[in-house]
Design goal:
The chain has about 110 residues and is mainly alpha-helical. It has one domain: Orthogonal Bundle (Helicase, Ruva Protein, domain 3), CATH 1.10.8. The protein is built from 6 helices and 2 strands. The protein has a two-stranded antiparallel sheet with strand order 1-2. It starts with a helix and ends with a helix. It comes from Enterococcus hermanniensis.
């Protein structure tokens, strides 16, 4: 799947729940290490989710604090590294859409 397509789905999801694009971008940047300019380049590109995560500067050191179930799987138990990163992002977006405070989403 293309990252830009997934990003659009994430954006629609969070906006339906009265959250903002800026908040979505903040959690993606927190997770991946992209800055705003680099993230926008990824959104504008035709890259797959795999390339998006491969090119990410660095996963946040607190990524292991992301726990819970997403799509029926515990994110901390997913063995495939790429799938786990995707599910980490899914989990953060779900938390944003459910109205959690940014401090909790960003594990601060």
């Amino acid at each position: 799947m293309r990252f830009a397509l997934i990003y659009d789905l994430y954006l629609k999801k969070v906006e339906r729940k009265n959250r903002s694009k800026a908040e979505l971008n903040q959690i993606i940047e927190w997770l991946t290490g992209y800055d705003a300019v680099a993230l926008q380049k990824q959104i504008d590109s035709d890259h797959s989710m795999e390339i998006f995560f491969t090119q990410a500067p660095a996963l946040n050191e607190n990524v292991t604090l992301i726990k819970g179930v997403i799509c029926g799987y515990r994110v901390e138990e997913i063995e495939d590294p790429l799938l786990q990163k995707i599910r980490y992002l899914d989990k953060l977006v779900d938390e944003l859409a459910k109205g959690k405070k940014m401090e909790k989403i960003l594990r601060q």
